[in-house]
């Protein structure tokens, strides 16, 4: 006797439950945000922005297995691009976002082409320098960036004169951007392109021997990560309405690394999960006042000890749970 | 069972009304402060002084019959953290006014949403840039011009030095000072022969000092706070610039003492009277400074009173505005702040008006020097 659960080509809802669970969880979080105070909306908004940023970084660091300490440079390009074009020149925010992203992609291509021939620590140092140079430019080029005075009066995101006035409206858009980012990431990961990146992450010489254009694929992954970073920077500018160099400093790099490793580097949903946890956890511990940082670090270390592959590493176990349930029902 | 449910419901209603009544009897002042990060020295003193002021006022019965509660949130000297903290204080704690620390970028980043909620802000930092935000913001920071004028005036009156170099960090306040310093030098009989910058975490400024010396600068007008002042003093000594003076900007006394140990009388600084109390002549200013110092020193001993005094004054200005408005509502308190009479604080005299949201309009600075490990006025 053959079990229909094994032979049937029709997938039950349980088969897809593992895939849909993160989407439902994200929408549930959005629901919580929409029924909460401005404070929660703000925290979730930042989580969504960092979700976009980390998902982009995951292309280069997770899928391709390269090191980048300079992704904040592209967030700064996106943020200042949007700020200057909208607040300085009255451009539509979405148009400004697209132009800023295009410029970031072009710069990523120009910088990445020579840089990505480096490997390991040398590549890490080169990308770190890129972040530092951009940071210095945002401080020193005061006629363009207004330096430490910061750029204020940046309008909320909108199109054709229609602006998202409330924070909750903006949260919906930010979550939509985050989900779109993860969807694109998932599609690309499962494509020929994604498999080439996985081959490079495994062994560059082996990938090259298989006919993978290593330098080319690395460059494309770097450019995609830059585009995500730029979009995240633009979203930040429109969400807060103000940017200054500190926003795009090295703390952004540290934060995004924490998100990646906590959520699960190289997984599709890990970066977004990490962004949500890293954003929410300090707020949950805010009541501890002076001990907040200590408790936060203890929890982070505990998570990394008990979930070394990140929280998304639990995904197979969850899928297995649902599959076991399906099999039990079939029997 | 029904009887017990009724009792529970009654208890819940009583608890709710008690909470509501308590909320009405409390005036909540929010404060976004950099308890960690570059602003920690100033902002910790700012927070502590606000708590002290609230404690002192509450012991006397509070304001308009309400106890004052300080809700302070650490912004880690980062704008993003400041935005989260401000929103938390607005929506969860429902603060009615802000009395925030010296992290300019944090106050600027949050200003938009604070203004939309019609909550006034009294700030340690400079004012936000947009006019609609400035309408709701009041600064208790001395205008940058005063610090520069005090130093130029000293050089002009007491020394032969007419050529100076400006050494500044990239913070908004220092940048404002730098521009003004170059602009007003000629009017005050000085010449700026070099303008050099440094980062707050730079471990050496010898190159900048060397350029200034080569340009003929007899004194360094430093614009920026923190350990870099001590670094500059050490570098001047190490380079053997035996005649060069270092004139530092407003800062914590601990920094002054360290730099003074290195350069002796060649290290000078601007200080409000409260930082060198013996320099204040008898009168209302002396009385106000002594009133603050009595409470401050009883709690914190010889901890530097510079930032604490301004926080104390900002709190008293808010209390005066609430009493004038006879209300704790944001718009009413904002209007009252604009129309307060001249108030003598422990740090300076404050004169707000609808056109003047930077309260300190008269130069409060003296030139100080470190002698015997103490800050004293240079007579």
UniProtKB/TrEMBL annotation, chain A:
UniProt name for this protein: Branched-chain amino acid ABC transporter permease
UniProt keywords, alphabetically: Cell membrane, Membrane, Transmembrane, Transmembrane helix
Transmembrane segments: 20-53, 94-113, 120-139, 169-186, 219-240, 260-282, 294-315
InterPro entries referenced in this protein's UniProt entry, alphabetically: ABC_transp_permease, LivM-like
Highest taxon of source: Bacteria
Any one GO molecular-function label of the UniProt entry: branched-chain amino acid transmembrane transporter activity
Primary subcellular site in the record, as a coarse category: membrane
GO cellular component, one term: plasma membrane
Topology within the bilayer: Multi-pass membrane protein
Localization per record: Cell membrane
Native source species: Alsobacter metallidurans
From TrEMBL, chain B:
Signal peptide: 1-23
Family, as annotated: Belongs to the leucine-binding protein family.
Entries under InterPro entries matching the protein: BCAA_transport, Leu-bd, Peripla_BP_I
Alphabetical list of PANTHER family matching this protein: BLR7848 PROTEIN (PTHR30483:SF38), LEUCINE-SPECIFIC-BINDING PROTEIN (PTHR30483)
Organism in which the protein naturally occurs: Alsobacter metallidurans
Alphabetical list of Gene3D superfamilies matching this protein: 3.40.50.2300
One GO BP: amino acid transport
The protein, known as: ABC transporter substrate-binding protein
Keyword tags: Amino-acid transport, Signal, Transport
Domain Leucine-binding protein: 26-361
């Amino acid at each position: 006797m053959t079990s229909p659960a094994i032979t049937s080509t029709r997938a039950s809802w349980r088969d897809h439950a593992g895939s849909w669970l993160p989407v439902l969880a994200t929408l549930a979080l959005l629901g919580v945000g929409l029924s909460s105070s401005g404070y929660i909306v703000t925290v979730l908004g930042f989580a969504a922005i960092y979700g976009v940023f980390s998902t982009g970084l995951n292309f280069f660091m997770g899928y391709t297995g390269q090191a980048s300490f300079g992704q904040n440079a592209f967030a700064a390009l996106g943020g200042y691009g949007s700020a200057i074009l909208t607040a300085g020149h009255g451009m539509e925010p979405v148009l400004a976002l697209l132009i800023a992203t295009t410029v970031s992609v072009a710069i990523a291509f120009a910088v990445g082409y020579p840089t990505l021939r480096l490997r390991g620590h040398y590549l890490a140092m080169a990308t770190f320098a890129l972040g530092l140079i951009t940071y210095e430019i945002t401080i020193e080029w005061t006629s363009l960036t207004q330096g430490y005075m910061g750029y204020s009066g940046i309008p909320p995101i909108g199109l054709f004169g229609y602006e998202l006035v409330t924070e909750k409206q903006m949260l919906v858009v930010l979550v939509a951007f985050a989900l779109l980012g993860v969807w694109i990431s998932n599609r690309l990961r499962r494509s020929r392109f994604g498999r080439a990146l996985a081959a490079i992450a495994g062994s560059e010489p082996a990938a090259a021997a298989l006919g993978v254009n290593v330098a080319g694929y690395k460059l494309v992954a770097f450019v995609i990560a830059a585009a995500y970073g730029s979009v995240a920077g633009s979203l930040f500018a429109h969400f807060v309405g103000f940017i200054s160099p500190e926003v795009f400093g090295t703390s952004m790099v540290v934060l995004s690394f924490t998100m990646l490793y906590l959520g699960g580097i190289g997984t599709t949903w890990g970066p977004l999960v990490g962004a949500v946890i890293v954003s929410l956890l300090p707020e949950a511990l805010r009541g501890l006042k002076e001990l907040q940082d200590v408790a936060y670090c203890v929890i982070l270390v505990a998570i990394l000890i008990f979930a070394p592959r990140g929280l998304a590493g639990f995904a197979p176990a969850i899928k297995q749970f649902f599959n076991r349930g399906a099999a039990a029902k079939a029997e | 069972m029904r009887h017990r449910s009724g009792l529970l419901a009654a208890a819940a209603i009583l608890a709710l009304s008690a909470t509501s009544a308590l909320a009405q009897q409390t005036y909540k002042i929010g404060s976004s402060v950099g308890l960690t990060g570059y602003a920690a020295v100033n902002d910790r003193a700012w927070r502590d002084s606000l708590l002290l002021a609230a404690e002192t006022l509450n012991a006397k019965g509070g304001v308009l019959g309400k106890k004052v509660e300080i809700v302070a949130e650490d912004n880690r000297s980062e704008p993003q953290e400041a935005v989260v903290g401000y929103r938390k204080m607005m929506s969860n704690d429902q603060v009615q006014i802000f009395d925030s620390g010296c992290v300019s970028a944090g106050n600027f980043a949050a200003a938009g949403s604070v203004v939309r909620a019609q909550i006034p802000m009294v700030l340690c930092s400079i004012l936000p840039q947009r006019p609609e935000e400035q309408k709701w913001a009041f600064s208790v920071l001395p205008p940058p011009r005063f610090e520069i004028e005090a130093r130029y005036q000293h050089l002009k009156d007491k020394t032969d030095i007419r050529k100076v170099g400006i050494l500044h960090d990239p913070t908004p306040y220092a940048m404002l000072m730098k521009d003004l310093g170059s602009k007003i030098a000629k009017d005050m009989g000085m010449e700026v022969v070099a303008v050099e910058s440094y980062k707050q975490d730079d471990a050496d400024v010898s190159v900048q000092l060397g350029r200034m010396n080569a340009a003929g600068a007899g004194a360094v007008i430093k614009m920026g706070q923190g350990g870099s002042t001590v670094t500059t003093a050490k570098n001047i000594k190490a380079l053997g610039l035996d005649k060069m003076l270092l004139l530092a900007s407003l800062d914590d006394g601990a920094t002054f003492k360290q730099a003074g140990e290195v350069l002796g009388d060649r290290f000078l600084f601007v200080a409000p009277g409260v930082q060198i109390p013996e320099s204040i002549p008898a009168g209302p200013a002396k009385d106000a400074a002594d009133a603050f110092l009595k409470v401050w020193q009883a709690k914190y001993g010889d901890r530097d009173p510079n930032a604490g005094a301004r926080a104390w004054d900002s709190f008293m200005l808010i209390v005066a505005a609430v009493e004038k408005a006879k209300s704790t509502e944001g718009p009413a308190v904002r209007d009252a702040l604009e129309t307060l009479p001249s108030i003598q604080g422990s740090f300076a005299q404050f004169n707000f008006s609808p056109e003047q949201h930077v309260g300190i309009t008269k130069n409060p600075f003296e030139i100080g020097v470190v002698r015997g490990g103490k800050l004293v006025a240079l007579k």
